[in-house]
Amino acid sequence: MKVIEIKGAFGIENLAPSERARPGPVGPGQVLLRMRAASLNFRDLMTVRGLYNPKQPLPLIPCSDGVGEVVETGPGVTRVKTGDRVATCFFQRWCAGRPTLEKAASTLGGPLDGTLAEYMLLGEGGVVPVPAHLTDAEGATLPCAALTAWSALVTQGDVKPGDSVLVQGTGGVALFALQFAKLLGARVMAISGSEDKLARAMALGADHGVNYKTTPRWSKAAREWSGGTGVDHIVEVGGAGTLQESLQAAGLGGQVSVIGVLAGASKELNILPILMKNVRLQGIFVGHREGFEAMNRAMARHGLKPVVDSTFPLDQAGEAFRRMERGEHFGKICLSHGC
Ligand SMILES: NC(=O)c1ccc[n+]([C@@H]2O[C@H](COP(=O)([O-])OP(=O)(O)OC[C@H]3O[C@@H](n4cnc5c(N)ncnc54)[C@H](OP(=O)(O)O)[C@@H]3O)[C@@H](O)[C@H]2O)c1
User: Cis omega (within 30 of 0) on the bond before 216?
Assistant: First the structure.
């Protein structure tokens, strides 16, 4: 079968088409998928560049997120059947409850081979049906970015109608958070480094937008927008470079969901706002399958469509990664397997 793999050394330039044996035979509890689409996450870009886990053995088929059709099921499979269209779970073995080291190590796109392959052999517990109203590419955006936003706002967030939510940037996680927050009846402020992208975020439903390049101290604007009380929930993807501003922007009893490291992973931090404002700092690591299924039910019920920035043919995966690297995207970059 045809795959795209990182071969020899890390780097987008080392991402190349290759041939591997089609996986099989299909064992008890397993499903064979013929893959149709994939999507890119910032983590995949870091993996390809060797920055996520430099000790990851190569070759590796990258990317955690994809959609495929079940073409064969092994003995004892009950959750899906041949012909079903399913999405891959980021964690192959985290179904519900708290994560464990073993569950946290079961991620696709490193250490396990990922979705840029014609076929994948997975456990039936590692896939979920895709909502019928979504295209293959749209379905492929769900496993990591969408579920992370859902976990932040719903599973571990308890956002309520009328709450204020701040999202950072206009990438995959942020735009899903914007859409889910609106679906929950919350008010949303978006920050972006681009006026054009801010206008698009407003068109998507954001109530207020601030440019973090022209207004680097955006916490003041956020507090004003919230009516002076501070923001109830902040979807923090900047990391060390934005966390202090997020803590300044947060209201008493608010939550900062710590998700990303776009602006660095470590920096000196004044922790006083955390205790003085009774802020809940909640780390988010994607989420479990139960959350994925709950999110899909909500998306189907409301006909919610992911924001797809662009779709590239599978063999142009390098071009897709370069678009992400340049930060040109608004929403999700997808790949089509051409079937
Ligand atoms: N913990 C988890 O489970 C988890 C899951 C998914 C993602 N993540 C992490 O979350 C982050 C975002 O991931 P993603 O896949 O959504 O990335 P993405 O689609 O590449 O989005 C990145 C966007 O963030 C914005 N941005 C960059 N620097 C910023 C800054 N200093 N302040 C505010 N916004 C900034 C930019 O938007 P504008 O162009 O509009 O400025 C950029 O387009 C990454 O660090 C990723 O590793 C973590």
Answer: no
Q: Is the CB of residue 150 below 6 angstroms from any atom belonging to ligand 1?
A: no
Query: What spacing in Å lies between the alpha carbon of 285 and ligand 1's midpoint?
Result: 14
Distance CA 277, CA 232 (A): 11
Ligand 1 and 286: CB distance under 6 A: yes
DSSP letter for each residue of 228-282: SS-EEEEEE-STHHHHHHHHHHEEEEEEEEE---TT-S------HHHHHTT-EEE
Cα(28) to ligand 1 centroid in Å equals 38
Distance 237 CA to ligand 1 centre (A): 5
Q: Distance between CA 145 and CA 277 in Å, rounded?
A: 29
Dihedral sign computed on CA atoms, order 307, 310, 314, 320? negative
CB burial class (10 A; 0-12, 13-18, 19+) of residue 107? buried
CA distance 279 to 256: 7
Q: pLDDT of 163-199, one tens digit each?
A: 999 999 999 999 999 999 999 999 999 999 999 999 9
Whether 149 has a pLDDT exceeding 90, the answer reads: yes
Quote the ligand 1 centre to 277 CA distance (angstroms). Answer: 26
Q: Token pair of 162, please?
A: 């009328």
Q: For 30-68, give one letter per residue: b (16+ CB within 10 A) or e.
A: bbbbbbbbbbbbbbbbebbbbebeeeeeeebbbbbbbbb
**What are the pLDDT digits (tens) for 77-91?**
999 999 999 999 999
Nearest CA to ligand 1 atom 32: 238
- Atom in ligand 1 nearest the alpha carbon of residue 198: 40
pLDDT band at residue 237 under the 50/70/90 scheme: very high
Q: What are phi and psi of 277, to 5 degrees?
A: -105, 5
Number of alpha carbons in the 13 Å side-chain half-sphere of residue 29: 5
